[in-house]
Amino acid sequence: MKKAIYPGTFDPVTVGHLDIMKRACTMFDEITIAVAKNASKKPMFNLEQRIAMVKTATKQFPKINVVGFEGLLVDLSEKLNANIIIRGLRAVSDFEYELQMGYANSSLKKELETVFLMPSLEYGFVSSSVVRSILPFNGKVDHLLPASILKMIEEYQK
């Protein structure tokens, strides 16, 4: 059974994330979306809200389960018995950071492989940080987020 982990802060989960998840479902038998607590990034949404958003956005994918985590990804991979990490790449700047992280993870756990997936062309510019920069100004984000997530964000911001 091919088990993979797709880690991230998912603050919030976007159509770009879902594109990666959907395509990963064609490659792996089980995918754990690991929502990182990552307080150093000062997320807009708390961990419980982000987990709820990812669960809502992925309920149509039976191969996907969602967990929150804090700590080292290699420790989570041990706990889940998953040796494949999925990471999305939009630009060269993403690649440099993700390559370093992949090597660091591999140095901690030799069996851990990192697989890089590019988003589909129409989602290449989409990121959680773009969404977060638009939200405070009530800008249009419905093309960047699943409708169910936009609705949740509106509720959270009340």
How would you characterize this protein structure?
This protein has helices at residues 15-24, 47-57, 73-80, 92-108, 128-134, 147-156; strands spanning 3-8, 30-36, 64-69, 84-88, 113-117. With 158 residues, the protein is an alpha/beta fold. It has a single domain (3-156), classed as HUPs (Rossmann fold, 3-Layer(aba) Sandwich). Strands 3-2-1-4-5 form a five-stranded parallel β-sheet, with helices on both faces. α2 runs antiparallel to α6 (147-156). The radius of gyration is 15 Å and the shape is globular. The termini are far apart. The mean pLDDT is 94.
Write the layout of secondary structure elements.
Elements: E1 3-8, H1 15-24, E2 30-36, H2 47-57, E3 64-69, H3 73-80, E4 84-88, H4 92-108, E5 113-117, H5 128-134, H6 147-156
Parallel strand pairs: 1-2, 1-4, 2-3, 4-5
Helix pairs in contact: 2-6
Give the CATH topology: Rossmann fold
* Overall spatial form: globular
**Name of the CATH class:** Alpha Beta
Distance between the ends: 43 Å
The percentage helix is 25-40%
Which sequence of strands runs across the widest sheet?
3-2-1-4-5
Order of helices and strands: EHEHEHEHEHH
Tally of alpha and pi helices: 6
In CATH, the architecture is 3-Layer(aba) Sandwich
Oligomer: single chain
Descriptive tags:
158 residues; 5 strands; Rossmann fold; globular
Short description:
The chain is an alpha/beta fold. The chain contains 6 helices and 5 strands, in the order E-H-E-H-E-H-E-H-E-H-H.
